[in-house]
Design goal:
The complex is a heterodimer. Chain A has one domain. Helix content of chain A is 63%, strand content 3%. Chain A contains 13 helices and 4 strands. In chain A, strand 3 and strand 4 form a beta hairpin. In chain A, helix 3 runs antiparallel to helix 4 and helix 4 packs antiparallel against helix 5. The N and C termini of chain A lie far apart (44 Å). Chain B starts with a helix and ends in a 10-residue tail after the last helix. Classes of the chains: A mainly alpha, B mainly alpha. At the A-B interface, helix 4 and helix 5 of A face helix 2 and helix 3 of B.
């Protein structure tokens, strides 16, 4: 029993560390997004709180924390309270299977643990898909429980959109799964070495016929749609639905919805980095630390690569937001079903054929 | 020991949530009880070391089908309807019969201790959970698998024809 409790304690410590990192990333993202958007639109962005407005997330957090918590009359109180929590929990627990660093083991108090992944389960990527599909509930319930027509419309739009684009996410990654021969994110990342799946990785080098670049594009576009970001932010389109499903939310509940959105952006960025861009692997064999004889510090470089890939995707999200106008609802559906879906299906067929004729070494 | 604790937890919640699904007056609560039930069924799969099935259970049932139910319920805005009130006598008769049957069967067989997988009997050397299912699906159960996909294809085409009522007719309006 002591081993079990020790294991629990170690896992809990890992989870807390990871949640801390994710929350810090979310806070950074709120600042980063306003700043980058500002620069792209030739503005300064937040400048008042701290040097270059760097303390703005703290000020925002304090403000939201002390705001009055308003529950609209006629709202379903239990569901109204449940929806933001559900959204937040769902966007946080997906990180459990993300490998942040190399697949090494460590001995702590006689236990063998993997320090850079909380749970290396053999169905890692399916777990992420399952979690992502649950994310729709928070939005639908929030929209319904508010007892407001804008919220309900936003919730319904979100339901239709998430179902449509989830399918494309699921189909886009099948090519990668065929190449890696595994569902575990750790094994998928390891299978890519320094030539990534986006270029068609094989143990013996690049193999352009296996390239997953089309799947990568489908995945990124569908991921933007699934996180309800511009240009796919129909569920919260402020010009038509006020704020969509969270029109009636204020204070910390509103903060929950917003941070959940940033957390799921971070999650899909992590997944995209692991699946297509080699996760913690550098774009060259091995690591620089190994060449200069510091093998025990190689993990620092791996984590730095992972973080820079994730931040590249997060920047891409903001870049798209600053560049593209919002789609109309019928355009969104037509694009999802008639453009993305056929590309994803064709990618599966072609990858399956090439993997059959040119199996990985 | 700990597996049994989890088994009874999942089993009790599944039973309670299933009752709630049919007993709740608000259709939204019914759907949410069904969601809780799906999660606990997935939990049962995990205790049986069938993680792949657990994930598929969540993705397909909770993530797609139930969202669609909720979508329809909200779109129609059903509220507190008295759906089952006229069916009470019938439901009671069927329920009592089933309970008596269950009691008789249990009395005849006696209580069997629940079998909990230890993870050794199902694991095939060298292949993963999903790999094993794929192997079986494309060898032993190839025919049922293909029949199922054919039925799904027919259902899909049927849905398209039902949705496009003017298919094959000259457009009038």
């Amino acid at each position: 029993m002591t081993e079990l409790s020790l294991r629990l304690a170690v896992s809990l410590a890992q989870i807390l560390t990871e949640m801390g990192i994710v929350m810090v990333t979310v806070a950074t993202m709120t600042y980063f997004e306003r700043k980058v958007l500002g620069w792209m639109q030739d503005r300064m962005g937040p400048m008042e709180v701290g040097p270059y407005g760097i303390l703005q997330p703290v000020a925002d957090g304090i403000k939201l924390f002390f705001k009055e918590d308003i529950v609209p009359a006629g709202a379903n109180k239990a569901m109204f309270a449940l929806a933001p929590m559900l959204t937040m929990v769902v966007s946080m627990i997906g990180f459990a299977v993300i490998p942040f660093g190399p697949n090494m083991t460590m001995d702590i108090f006689g236990l063998t643990i993997k320090p850079f992944v909380v749970a290396d389960i053999n169905i890692g990527i399916l777990y992420i898909l399952a979690i992502a599909s649950i994310g729709a509930y928070g939005i639908i319930l929030g929209g319904w429980a508010s007892n407001s027509k804008y919220s309900l419309l936003g919730g319904l739009r979100a339901a239709a959109q998430v179902i449509s684009y989830e399918l494309n996410v699921g189909l886009a990654i099948v090519g990668v799964l065929l190449l890696a021969g595994s569902l575990s994110l750790v094994e998928i990342t390891e299978a890519q070495a320094w030539h990534w799946f986006i270029w068609g990785a094989r143990p013996d080098g690049f193999f352009p016929i296996h390239t997953q670049i089309f799947a990568f594009v489908v995945f990124i576009i569908s991921a933007v749609a699934e996180t309800n970001r511009i240009p796919f932010d129909l569920p919260e389109a402020e010009s038509e639905l006020v704020a969509g499903f969270f029109t009636e939310y204020s204070g910390m509940r509103f903060a929950f919805f917003v941070s959940a959105e940033y957390a799921s952006m971070t999650l899909v960025s992590c997944v995209a980095a692991s699946l297509f861009l080699g996760g913690w692997n550098a774009p060259y064999p091995g690591t620089i630390f190994e060449y200069v004889g510091l093998e025990q510090l190689a993990w620092v470089e791996h984590i730095a690569w992972f973080a820079s890939k994730v931040y590249f995707f997060l920047f891409l999200f903001i870049w798209i937001r600053a560049t593209l106008p919002r789609l109309r609802y019928d355009q969104l559906m037509r694009f999802g079903w008639k453009v993305m879906l056929p590309i994803a299906l064709a990618n599966i067929i072609i990858t399956a054929i090439t993997v059959y004729f040119f199996p990985r070494g | 020991m700990i597996e049994q604790v989890f088994f009874f937890y999942f089993a009790c919640v599944i039973a309670a949530a299933s009752v709630l699904v049919v007993a709740a007056h608000n259709p939204i609560y019914s759907a949410l009880a069904l969601l809780i039930m799906f999660f606990h069924v997935a939990g049962l799969f995990v205790t049986l070391h069938a993680e792949f099935l657990a994930a598929v259970q969540i993705i397909v049932y909770a993530g797609a089908i139930l969202v669609l139910y909720l979508f329809v319920v909200m779109l129609l805005n059903l509220r507190h309807d008295d759906r089952y009130h006229r069916q009470w006598p019938m439901a009671a008769a069927v329920g009592v019969t089933l309970v008596i049957e269950a009691v008789i069967l249990t009395a005849m067989k006696g209580w069997a201790t629940p079998v909990v997988a230890t993870g050794t009997e199902t694991t095939v050397e060298g292949t993963s959970n999903a790999g094993t299912i794929g192997d079986v699906l494309y060898s032993t159960y190839l025919f049922p698998f293909e029949v199922a996909s054919l039925i799904l294809l027919v259902a899909m085409i049927g849905a398209i024809i039902l949705a496009k009522k003017d298919l094959g007719e000259p457009t009038e309006s």
